[in-house]
Amino acid sequence: MIRILSFFQEGCMACQEQEPINREVEEALSVHIEPVNPLKDRSYLEKYSLRVTPTIVILKDGQVVERFEGVVHREQLEEAIQKYL
C-alpha cells in the first residue's frame, strides 16, 4: 500500500503551483495525495528531513521510496506513483 504526502506552507507560491497538479494526478490515477502543513505538526520536519516546500514523499509499506523537492510536473509524478500501484 502506498501513501503520498505533499508538504506545503501557507503563502508558498510554488506550493500553490503544485496543488492543481496534485489534483490532476489524483483524478488520473485514483489516488489520494495527502496535503500536510509541517509547521502545524513539526514532527514531520525531522522525520522526513524537510528543507523546502513543496516536497512530495511517496511511501510504500511505511518506507520512503520516492521524494521530490520543488514543483513536480504531472508526467513525472504520475510515472513515479505508477511504479508502486
Count the helices. How many? 3
The biggest sheet, with number of strands, parallel, antiparallel or mixed sense and barrel status, is:
4 strands, mixed
Indicate how many domains the architecture comprises: 1
The span between the termini is: 8 Å
| Beta strands, count | 4
Gyration radius from CA atoms, angstroms: 12 Å
- Spatial order of the strands in the main sheet? 2-1-3-4
The gist of it:
The protein is an alpha+beta fold.
Commentary on this structure:
The longest helix has 17 residues, at 13-29. The chain has three helices and four strands; from the N terminus they run βαβαββα. With 85 residues, it is of the alpha+beta class. The protein is globular, with a radius of gyration of 12 Å. A four-stranded mixed β-sheet has the order 2-1-3-4, with helices on one face. A hairpin with a 2-residue loop joins β3 (55-60) and β4. The protein has a single domain, classed as Glutaredoxin, CATH 3.40.30.
Descriptors:
single chain; 85 residues; alpha+beta; Glutaredoxin; 4-stranded mixed sheet; 3 helices; 4 strands; 36% helix
Note the topology.
Blueprint (H helix, E strand, L loop, with lengths): L1 E6 L5 H17 L3 E4 L6 H5 L7 E6 L2 E7 L4 H9 L3
Parallel strand pairs: 1-2
Antiparallel strand pairs: 1-3, 3-4
